[in-house]
Amino acid sequence: MKMKKQFPDLHYLYEAAVQGVGADLDFAARVFKKKNGRKAADLREDFCGTAALACEWVSRSPKHRAWGVDIDQPTLDWGLAHNVPYIGENAGKLDLICGDVLTAKTPPADLVLALNFSYCIFKTREQLRNYFIKARSALKKDGLLVLDIYGGTEAIEAKLEPRDVGAFTAKDGTKIPVFEYTWDQNIYNVIDHHVVNYIHFDIPKVGKIKKAFTYDWRLWTLPELQELLFEAGFESAEVYLHGWNKDGESDETYRPRKNYENALGWVAYIVGIN
Ligand SMILES: C[S@@+](CC[C@H](N)C(=O)[O-])C[C@H]1O[C@@H](n2cnc3c(N)ncnc32)[C@H](O)[C@@H]1O
């Protein structure tokens, strides 16, 4: 009997295709040390999902602690089953909270990270300012809020962007073959900057999952984000953008910038400084 190959759990594919937790943490730790002359230790990951980033943080140093906040218990459960068991005794320095980022209570953190544009669910200035106020209140006096956003001329058009992701073996031994990840900017409304984006996956000889993840967001601009951080009480808001390699791709080196020539696509970090 021919066995039908089973489609792997979507979270493996998401973490491999979308997240770059090592680079995100290197960036946040570097900026914190530069600003404060000491190393960050306590980190809160908002919209943590499977808590891949929080798990990596507590694994980096015995001094590190992390809190992850997500509203969806099944996603947290996946992280508890597939990420947390592989960080050994560091799991004792990690606390995952099922709750709303607007109301979750955590001890004062050096860093609050809200990445992969998750805060774009807040679609009005009032809602986003309120989130920034709450994130600021979760920080120590010298703490930093680290966000990211995408932009560029192709960010404001409907388009499909397929990309192959290499085969890998997950920490629990699950073998993931080469697969195609497609970022589908399906709707962009010029009037209010509301967007609907999807992620599709296609594993050759296994199957396709259309609309594996759906994002109903407002695509915020860099000036709006900086203004709202100020309005939320942050003393400054810095924009860090990457340079370009010889192939015209991001060189992954993020520097604070006041000017930046637009390009087809870029990703920026925005740092709210207390
Ligand atoms: C795009 S995923 C982010 C996953 C991962 N942290 C990353 O950086 O790629 C967004 C997550 O935000 C969670 N979420 C949505 N609204 C939330 C809220 N108000 N409070 C906490 N979590 C929320 C969802 O359950 C989902 O897991």
What does this protein look like?
It is a single chain. With 274 residues, the protein is an alpha/beta fold. It has two domains: 195 residues, Rossmann fold (3-Layer(aba) Sandwich), CATH 3.40.50.150; 65 residues, no CATH class. Helix content is 24%, strand content 37%. The protein contains six helices and 14 strands. The strands form three sheets. It has an eight-stranded mixed sheet with strand order 3-2-1-4-5-14-12-13, sandwiched between helices. Strands 6-9-10-11 form a four-stranded antiparallel sheet, with helices on one face. Strands 7-8 form a two-stranded antiparallel ribbon. Helix 2 crosses helix 3 and helix 5 crosses helix 6. The radius of gyration is 19 Å and the shape is globular. It starts with 9 loop residues before the first helix and ends with a strand. The relative contact order is 0.15. The chain binds S-adenosylmethionine (SAM). The site of S-adenosylmethionine (SAM) has 16 residues, from strand 2.
Q: How much of the sequence is in beta strands?
A: 35-45%
Class computed from helices, strands and strand pairing? alpha/beta
Distance between the termini: 63 Å
Query: Which shape, going by the Cα principal axes?
Result: globular
The CATH superfamily of the largest domain appears as Vaccinia Virus protein VP39
Query: What's the number of structural domains?
Result: 2
Return the CATH class of the largest domain.
Answer: Alpha Beta
CATH architectural designation of the largest domain: 3-Layer(aba) Sandwich
Strand order of the largest sheet: 3-2-1-4-5-14-12-13
Q: What is the makeup of the main sheet?
A: 8 strands, mixed
Count of helical stretches: 6
Bound molecules: S-adenosylmethionine
Radius of gyration from the alpha-carbon trace, in angstroms: 19 Å
Q: Name the helix and strand elements from N-terminus to C-terminus, one letter apiece.
A: HHEHEHEEHEEEEEEEHEEE
| Residues in helix, % | 10-25%
Mean pLDDT: 96
